[in-house]
Amino acid sequence: MADEPRASTGSAVTEWFSTRIGGVLVPVAATALAFLIGGLVVAITGNNPITAYKAIFAGTGLNWFFPWVSGDARADAANDLQQTLILMAPLILTGLAVAFAFRCGLFNIGGQGQYWVGFIAALYVATNLEGTPRPLHVLLAIVAAIVAGGIWGGIAGALKATVGAHEVITTIMLNWIAIFGGTYLYEIGGPLQGPQESIPRSDEVFESAELWPIWGSLPALHAGIFIALFALVVYSVILNRTTLGFEVRAVGFNPEAARYSGISVSKNYFLALAISGAFAGLAGGIDLLGFKFSVDVGDFGTNFIAFTGIAVALLGRTRAVGILFAALLFAALEVGTSTRQLDPEVFEPALAVDLATMIQALVIFFVGAELLIVYIWRARTLLRPGQAAQPELKQ
Amino acid sequence: MADAPLLELRGITKRFPGVVANDHVDFELAKGEVHALLGENGAGKSTLMNILYGLYHPDEGEIRLNGKPLRIDSPRAAIDNGIGMVHQHFMLIPVMSVAENIVLGVEPHSGPFLDLDTAQARVRELSERFGLAVRPEARIDSISVGMQQRVEILKALYRGAEILILDEPTAVLTPQEAEELFAIVRSLQAEGKSIIFISHKLNEVLKIADRITTLRFGKEVATVPREGATQEGLARMMVGREVVLRVEKPPAQPGEPLLVAEDLIVVDDRGLEACRGISLEVRAGEIVGIAGVDGNGQTELIDALTGLRHPASGRIVVGGRDVTDATAREVLDNGMGHIPEDRQLRGLVLDFSLAENLALHDFRKPPDSRFGWLFPRRLVQRARRLLAEFDVRGGGPETPAASLSGGNQQKVVVAREVSRDPRVLLAAQPTRGLDVGAIEFVHRRLVTERDEGRAIVLVSFELEEILSLSDRILVLYEGRIVGEYQPDVSEEELGFAMTGGLENEAA
């Protein structure tokens, strides 16, 4: 007889959450809990969690923002921060790819495939059209990435809209098609393999198609970060200031009511997945043109950036600002624990990578367990007056 | 009623953040009594009963059973003390049998094995004793809503309930099923059970209750015996002012036909013909009521008229334009207003703000938007005007629709549909689940819109509503219109036609 109390209390508390704290409490609490449990695990392995976290933080380069860091430490911090920001850009975009579909009530797990298709399309444009002037060549390659990703997402959308095929299944399958398709293209003897016959690797992009470096050199932070930030604005504007976004949100919240208002649900499913795919494709494009410049067949099976994008979207609660911070967090975590950054004396590098994965997983777990956090909160606030009343009842 | 009460609630107070849901409420129940708890939505009826059932703890006050103070801190404790509750939303497992559902958690067993035979026998015995006519072997998903409710009642009886709380039991029932429920309540009473009957429907409270306690804004207004109580008096206690229960309307002055349907055949989701050749005509300035028992083709007829489902054959003309093959959006733009059957599922996007909900049909057009660019501030401005005009309370333009009461939600739907100046207004179950005050509002508004010269179609399962509002009544039975009546027809005659009496006579 575990009946959920049906009266207004439930919604009143939830409303209080969303209005007073703007929905920030749950993600922040989830992150804090994840780091806390991660720290316990570090302690169990016989290390000092505080030293470990300090070392990881130093590795993220975020200490560059502290004015008192100077000299060599500052130069190191700058290098690290460049890496964090390079990684943050595609994380924002793959996060948007999940978030946009989410707003339409769809779960896009196909970010990885859309990322690769965008990557490959940009690679094709950037390794051809020799002699195209730079800004134009960059633009063409990026447009190719966006369109290709959009088509890849759109295929899943069209299948959903016409025959009702579930997007989770189709996007997963499209991931594999993209991964194996890419492998085929660049493997030894593949149609687009690069100049070295014994290496399964593509051509290098022409310099005229490379994104502009803006800071540092190892590799340099490139202009892709501005593209990603601009995409955040575009995302927010589409959703909140266009009729398209209005329809997408209406369908996402209540497809039945949307249908009753004459909104075509299937059209919106198609558009939402196509736009999602475009964001992920763009992520592939800027990674290629920004710092990868070519692809090795081995990359196809080992890159999971779009799956991290799911975590970014969930932790960011599909809001533009939330996605910005969530992408920064996950990028920093990954860079801060990468083996290159850590002093083995402080924390074993192999453990550090596991720790990063674990914290990511815990964050997703706790964000998913939002209900649990809300429940604990509600129990705390509602039981207080109740307990006060109990002695009276006993008498 | 001279005996000491079986159950007493004294000075029950329950506060939630920002509201006092129950403010020193007293309530008592005698053995063998049917005691109605009457009040508008949000008056505190459910809170009080959830306290009695152990779901909430009161901040103040005490519960006494047989004169002894009692602490109920969980539904389990309530059940152990012979208190059972039938919720508005049933808690049954669809794929299991009636008997399995009833014994769930208290299964009779021989050794480690479930003794289903004993279970079925005991369920059958209980069912016969109280005249419930439930088959223990039937699967829950194969029986009607009315039957499912009886299963819930049996579940409580099986656990030894002496006091039964029925939370708005008729809300989900057809008029026939409601009558059957009343018979069951009387037989439970005859067997010495005591019943708390929660409702906001005046007529049924007067039909079934021995005493009636009214709540308003969490306070107890009065407890009165049924003898001498009137609908008007109860309504005044509930709402706190005079309520006009009878809809006052001048005679209709029908003009040109605005909605014409010819030989509509509509197929339902299972591929069966749900509407089997419906023809009707609704003129400007009249309300045509469509009476019928749920499931006789109403949903499919409404879907077809609003462009949500294309008829297999036939023709639909709205305002002189053929819209048989038009999309839902085209139908809406051609002057159709639609108050859908289920406001929370179909009428509103609950997570949208009121401003967004009010713009749900028109956001594509100026001034809401231009070239796909939305102007949220204009949405808010219009919402502010409409919320004031339609007296929507409980929130402003930016409030999510979910946080409004049912009556105010319905006002938002009505505001949206009426403000688009439709030629035809299709109202499906427009007052379902609303309290007296909100019903009065919706009814008045429909009459006003009629007098403005709109053609109004009213689809309702409530005979009273059909009779009091309609200028003409069509009876829908098994996908056909089987009769047309004037509003002075008797309920019996209408009920006879609704249940297929005419068809059988003709056969």
Question: Can you offer a commentary on this structure?
Answer:
The complex is a heterodimer of chains A (395) and B (507). Chain A is an all-alpha fold. Chain A has helices spanning 9-20, 25-44, 49-60, 71-103, 111-126, 134-163, 167-186, 224-241, 243-253, 255-260, 265-292, 297-302, 305-315, 320-337, 349-368, 370-394, and strands at residues 213-215, 221-222. Chain B has 18 helices and 24 strands. Classes of the chains: A mainly alpha (395), B alpha/beta (507). Chains A and B meet through helix 1, helix 9, helix 10 and helix 16 of A and helix 1, strand 4, helix 2, helix 10 and helix 11 of B.
Jot down its keywords:
heterodimer, A: 395 residues, mainly alpha, two-stranded antiparallel sheet, 1% strand, globular, disordered N terminus, disordered C terminus, B: 507 residues, alpha/beta, Rossmann fold, 6-stranded mixed β-sheet
In what range is the share of β-strand residues of chain A?
under 5%
Shape of chain A, please? globular
Unreliably modeled segments of chain A: 1-20, 384-395
Number of helices of chain A: 16
Q: Judging by the overall fold, what is the CATH architecture of the largest domain in chain B? A: 3-Layer(aba) Sandwich
Q: SS-based structural class of chain B?
A: alpha/beta
Any idea of the CATH topology of the largest domain in chain B? Rossmann fold
Q: Which oligomerization state do the chains in this entry correspond to?
A: heterodimer
Distance between the termini of chain B: 52 Å
Whole-number total of structural domains of chain B: 3
Residues in helix, % of chain B: 25-40%
